[in-house]
Amino acid sequence: MTVRRVVPNIQSEAAQESREFYGLLGLEEVMNQGWIMTLASPSSPTAQISVMTSDKTAPVVPDMSIEVDDVDEAYAVLRKSGAEIVHPLQDEEWGVRRFFVRDPSGRVVNVLGHRRRD
User: Fold this and answer.
1) pLDDT of 117 over the 80 cut
2) At 18, is the secondary structure helix, strand, or coil?
3) What would be the CATH architecture of the domain defined by 3-114?
4) pTM, whole model, 2 decimals?
5) CA-to-CA distance for 50 and 105, rounded, in angstroms?
6) I want to staple 107 with a disulfide (CB 3.0 to 4.6 A). Which of 59, 63, 112, 114 is the partner?
7) For the VOC domain, which residue ranges apply (predicted)?
8) What does the alpha-carbon distance between residue 15 and residue 2 come to, in Å, rounded to a whole number?
9) Tens digits of residue pLDDT in 63-81
10) Which of 117 and 54 is assigned the larger pLDDT?
């Protein structure tokens, strides 16, 4: 399993202010779905921060997102380990397959992969 990126998620109602603040550090908006906005570095596109008001389909806002190349493998490994699954593995309408798991410190991690287009 390969990690493609790790993104901190900030729960906030101040999306515009966050866009402006992180823009001062060189980050630019690369995605905005209304409830989640992702800012990235133009020179290093996997360097990202997401600002979320809530999560569209999950009961909690995750503390971070980890994109992997095989989300089904990650799900199997974490379930076998006994980790607490907070949100089940599912396909989302915006093109990702994901689940949430709680890490040993209590943080909620969104583990995701982009669905392949056939």
Assistant:
1) no
2) helix
3) Roll (3.10)
4) 0.90
5) 21
6) 63
7) 1-114
8) 31
9) 999 999 999 999 999 999 9
10) 54
Sign of CA dihedral 16, 49, 105, 82: positive
Tens digits of residue pLDDT in 17-53: 999 999 999 999 999 999 999 999 999 999 999 999 9
Q: At 59, list the tokens.
A: 């009961």
Gap between the Cα atoms of 105 and 84, Å rounded: 12
Which residue in this structure is represented by tokens 């593995």? 89
pLDDT number for residue 1: 87
CA 68 to chain centre: 11
Q: Contact at 8 Å (CB) between 53 and 10?
A: no
Calculate the alpha carbon distances from 30 to 1, 20, 46, 103 in Å. Answer: 26, 14, 11, 28
Type of residue at 11: Q
